[in-house]
Give the backbone structure.
Amino acid sequence: MLLLLLLLFKGLPCHGASTVASLLSSFHNLSAAHSSLSAPLLLGFHHPAAEEPLSYHFIQISSFANHSWAYTQASGWLGEVETEAWDSVSGTIRFLKPWSHGNFSKEEVKNLEALLELYLHSFTTEVQVFASQFQFEYPFELQVLFGCQMRAGKPSESFLNGAYQGSDFLSFQGNSWKPSPGAGSRAQNVCRVLNHYRVIKEIVQRLLSDTCPRLLASLLDAGKSELEQQVKPEAWVSKGPSPGPGRLLLVCHVSGFHPKPVWVMWMRGEQEQPGTQRGDVLPNADGTWYLRVTLDVTSGEAAGLTCRVKHSSLGGHDIIIHWDGNSILLILICLTVIVILVMLVVVDLRFKKQSSNQNILYPHVPNPAFSTRTNTRDPRSSGHLLCLAQDLWIKSKFLKNWKTLVVLYT
Ligand SMILES: *[C@@H]1O[C@H](CO)[C@@H](O)[C@H](O)[C@H]1NC(C)=O
Ligand SMILES: *[C@@H]1O[C@H](CO)[C@@H](O)[C@H](O)[C@H]1NC(C)=O
Ligand SMILES: *[C@@H]1O[C@H](CO)[C@@H](O)[C@H](O)[C@H]1NC(C)=O
C-alpha cells in the first residue's frame, strides 16, 4: 500500500557515470518526461538551446527477478550532473557534490533521507506483495522518474512517471494517478488502488510542488561556480574506418570541454559541409564532455577541409584543425619510416661486409634494442635484451662488439 509512496528524491546505488546514459535511454519511452531529461544544463552560455528548462530529477530502477529477489538503483540529477546516489547497503544518501544539499537544513535532509529509505524499502515489499494482483510477471522492471523544471528562473513543470518493462505505465497528474494511454487494464488497476491512498497523494503533491522546486533552485545557486565553470576543449582529427573504395571518413574529436553545448563542423573555408555527422555528446569521467564529428568524403575532396570548434570557453577564438596538416604529418611519418628502413638495409649490408673483415669496434646501432645498452651495464641483462631483438644474425655479430663496449664503459 505504500507503493509509489514517497516518491522522492535522491538516490540509489549508482554504478558510476556510465550508467547515466543507459538510465536515461531506458526512460526514453517515458515521453512526457523525456523532454526534461534531455534538456542539457545550460548555464551562462548564450546559445539557442539556453532557452531549454533546467531540471532536477530522481531516477529509480527496480528489478524484480522473482518473488524473493529485487534490486533497486536510485540517483538524483541536476540536469546532467549526478548530485546524489542512494547507497542501498547502508540505506543512506551519498551526496556526490559539496553543494548537493543545496540550502536544505541538516534536519530537512535527514527527514528526506528517512522518507526515501522508507519509500524504497516499502516499494520493494509492496510490489512483491501485490505482484500477482497487479499481474506483474517475473522477471520485471519498474522505473520511476520524478522531478521538476525551471524556466526563466521560475518553477515550471513537475512530473512523476512510472514505467513497467520499459514502457509508459502511469503518471501523477494534478492530484491523482493516471494510467498511461496504451498501458491497458493492468495500469488502470494499479491506479485505482493507488488513488485510494489520500495521504500518499498529498505527500507526492507536496514533493512535486514544493520540495523539488526549492531543491532545484537552491542547487542551482549552491553549485553555480561548478556548473558555470568554463573548460576549454582539445580537438584533433583522425581517419575513421574507410566507408568504401576511394572514400575517407574524416573524424574530428573534441574533448574535455565544459559546459556541454558545443558547435563542431567540418568546413571548407567558410563553407559548412552539410554531410557533417554529429555523434552524441558523451561524458568524460571528470565531468567534462566529448564529441566526435565525422565527414564521409572521396579521397580527392579531403584536402583543404578543416574542423572548426566553437565553445563558450574559447571566447570567440574558434579552434580550427586542418585535415591537410594531419596528412602532411602522416606523409612525414611515412617518409621517416622509409628513410629509416633504407638506412637499416644499408647498415645491414655494411655489417655483412665488415663481419667478413672481423675488425669493427664501433658499429652503428641499427636496432633499438641496442640503444639500451648504454643504460645497462650488466652484460647478462643486456644479453637478454639482445635476445629480444628479432634479428639473430645481428645479435651474433654484435655480441662481440658489445662486450668490448661494456668493458669500455665500466
Ligand atoms: C531469485 O532470483 C535470484 C537472482 O536471479 C536467484 O539467485 C534466486 O535463486 C532466485 N530465487 C528463487 C526462489 O527462484
Ligand atoms: C518504446 O516505444 C516504442 C514505440 O512506442 C516501442 O516500439 C518500443 O518497443 C518501446 N520500448 C520498450 C522497451 O518498451
Ligand atoms: C533556499 O534557496 C531558495 C532558492 O535559492 C530560496 O528561495 C529559499 O529562501 C532558501 N531558503 C533558505 C532557508 O535559505
Q: What stands out?
A: Residues 103, 214, 217-218, 221 surround 2-acetamido-2-deoxy-beta-D-glucopyranose (ligand 3) (CB under 6 Å). The chain is about 35% helix and 30% strand. The first helix runs from residue 18 to 26. Confidence is low (pLDDT under 50) at residues 1-51, 359-410.
